[in-house]
Specification:
Shape of chain A: elongated
Helix content of chain A: 10-25%
Strand content of chain B: 35-45%
Number of helices of chain A: 2
Number of helices of chain B: 4
Oligomer: heterodimer
Number of strands of chain B: 8
Order of helices and strands of chain A: EHHEEEE
Helix content of chain B: 25-40%
Largest sheet of chain A: 5 strands, antiparallel
Number of strands of chain A: 5
Strand order of the largest sheet of chain A: 1-3-4-5-2
Structural class of chain B: alpha+beta
Radius of gyration of chain B: 17 Å
């Protein structure tokens, strides 16, 4: 049985994911994402002068959420709000490393809310995406 | 947004401009494909029998699939500003069900000159019919 993260164990300012969780940006991952979201943006199909091809900015929804699945709350949690800043698109072939910290904990209408900041860098430390996710924690 | 000068128009972009709208039909095949692509295989999205036992009564699309449609709109309108420094802030207001059609609407409500360039802020709403399912704002550089 999965060990769910208990709300009472969360502390504002503490790491939620550390060490970072890695994600390989493969051609297969990017092409599947583009196909499933019906995205025909021309810039996603071209290679630059170095032969690099970029992923959709919103692939962040895949690699950040994938990282957060390493530690999950009880079933029934809801993704309430999302902020992203896209510093630059990830490229096929990069390895992304995502960390997360608990920023704010609060109760509203008898429901437990968790705000977490996330930061994703590539294997060379270049900043790709930062974010803030607000989750309503599942009932324990 | 301090130390910034508000503008009504810049380089052909004006406050009140509408972003190019998209309509995207969502069906279970699309939800299944997104689950496969994203690795998010929560049964609420892909298992109709399980979903019947939940508050929603049937499967719902991933909220982040709707954000992918938002990203398509922004990429079409201003790829450079969106992909290189774009900021998104949204709240999920309600579910998208298989069979729904998502309409992504955006309107520029602020243009401002900052120290490092000119930025536009867009109000965003995603609708299923008359119901708003995602609301928020996006900020992109436009020069």
């Amino acid at each position: 049985m999965t060990d769910y993260v208990k709300y009472a164990s969360l502390v504002e300012g503490a790491d939620f994911l550390n060490p970072a969780v890695s994600f390989e940006v493969t051609k297969e991952v990017v092409d599947k994402y583009i196909s499933s979201t019906n995205d025909s943006t021309p810039e996603l199909q071209v290679q630059d002068e170095k032969g690099d091809r970029v992923a959709p900015p919103m692939l962040a929804a895949v690699y950040v959420i994938d990282a957060l699945r390493v530690r999950v709350g009880p079933p029934g949690g809801i993704h309430a709000k999302q902020k992203f800043k896209f510093h630059r698109p990830a490229k096929i072939g990069e390895t992304l490393l995502t960390t997360a910290k608990v920023s704010t904990l609060y109760v509203k209408k008898e429901r437990n809310y968790v705000e977490m900041t996330t930061e994703t860098r590539n294997q060379n430390g270049e900043l790709i995406t930062t974010g803030l996710i607000t989750r309503i924690w599942g009932k324990e | 947004m301090s130390d910034a000068t508000e503008l009504q128009t810049f380089n052909g972009v004006s406050v009140g401009d509408q972003l190019p709208e998209i309509l995207q039909a969502v069906d279970q095949n699309m939800i299944d494909a997104y689950a496969d692509a994203s690795g998010d295989v929560n049964p609420l999205h892909i298992d109709p029998e399980f979903a019947k036992t939940t508050f929603f009564g049937r499967t719902i699309a991933h909220g982040l699939l709707t954000l992918a449609f938002v990203s398509r709109v922004l990429s079409t309108w201003n790829w450079q500003g969106w992909a290189y420094g774009g900021e998104l802030e949204v709240a999920f207001m309600g579910p998208v069900y298989p069979g729904d059609e998502v309409r992504v609407c955006g309107e520029i409500d602020l243009i401002e000159q900052r120290d490092d360039g000119v930025y536009a802020r867009c109000k965003l709403v995603c609708y299923c019919g008359e119901k708003a399912v995602v609301k928020g704002t996006v900020i992109c550089k436009i020069n």
